[in-house]
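FAQ: What does a ligand-bound record look like?

Like this one, built around zinc ion:
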Amino acid sequence: MKALVYGGPGKKSWEEKPKPTLQHPADAIVRISRTTICGTDLHILKGDVPEVTPGRILGHEGVGIVEETGAQVGNFEKGDHVLISCITSCAQCEYCKKGMYSHCLNGGWILGHLIDGTQAEYVRIPYADNSLYRIPEGMDEEALVMLSDILPTGFECGVLNGQIKPGDTVAIIGAGPVGLAALLTAQFFTPAEIIMIDLDANRLEVSKKFGATQTINSSSEKVVEKIMQLTGNKGVDTAIEAVGVPATFELCQSIIAPGGRIANIGVHGKSVELHLETLWSRNVTITTRLVDTVTTPMLLRTVASKKLNPSLLITHRFQLPEIVRAYEVFAQAGKEKTLKVILINE
Ligand SMILES: NC(=O)c1ccc[n+]([C@@H]2O[C@H](COP(=O)([O-])OP(=O)(O)OC[C@H]3O[C@@H](n4cnc5c(N)ncnc54)[C@H](O)[C@@H]3O)[C@@H](O)[C@H]2O)c1
Ligand SMILES: [Zn+2]
Ligand SMILES: [Zn+2]
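The answer part, i.e. the structure of the complex:
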């Protein structure tokens, strides 16, 4: 089969690889029908994730058709249409039993990281019963690719950890696919205001279409002043960090109202200053989380009932063999106005 193979920092190629085979009775082999590229794949290509070794097939998102199942797989059989979770869960270890699939002692985030991933014609999925989700008949499979990673990430790490309630004022810093996923799912809880902050004017325009009540361009506007103006000098009830740099986490600390929640989503590579000299008395909560994908079944139902439309995030489509070009378009998000790209394996 053909696959997108990591060749070390800065190197990737679309090349021939052996088709995966069952390695364990709980495995399934899935023929990919749609996959996508994540910002994390760009981090890997920069060399930021050294556990990924040359020769690894990248990708941790996608949908497909079950091709083969091991003897222990009870929930799926050949021909089933499935959504692949970016998180592999054994459902048996201590962390899985607490609903923290991301910390599964036998899985977690391994696809396109520690084992071969989904940017290929076929993929092997360990613990298939707990790591795949059945796609109901008649559903738009492209929209569901957004449920492999970014929708549960925005929802679990941002919206749920940020404890958004009706009438709240929310700020989301970063209007990339993950910040926009938080924007879409925050609306389940009907906050009064959702303020989106980014440097990219196009992404802020998109945010307005997705339900933002205010946008602030932090390259040209004074964010703290504007937020204090919009909130009667109180600050926001929930600040969601969806970028992953020190400046944006510090911004969350400057705009949080007493009793507020700072929910970090961003992957951080540098330490950030914690301003306890101002926060100690403000009853704030700070949360961090790696996406668990425990909300995937719930999100699937909201898409099926048309309460949530994640296909809004798809801006480009390519055939799977054009994936190297798709990476270029995805990496130049500012110029190409890219959010998510869909790769089609016909
Ligand atoms: N916690 C998790 O489980 C988890 C899972 C997936 C992704 N992530 C992380 O979530 C973050 C967002 O992912 P994404 O795919 O949307 O990334 P992205 O790079 O597409 O989006 C980030 C956005 O932040 C904006 N930005 C950059 N610097 C800024 C600044 N100083 N002020 C305001 N905006 C700024 C960019 O213009 C961009 O629109 C990343 O750090 C990613 O690694 C975390
Ligand atoms: Zn991802
Ligand atoms: Zn487990």
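Follow-up question: can I read anything off the structure? Yes, for example: The radius of gyration is 20 Å.
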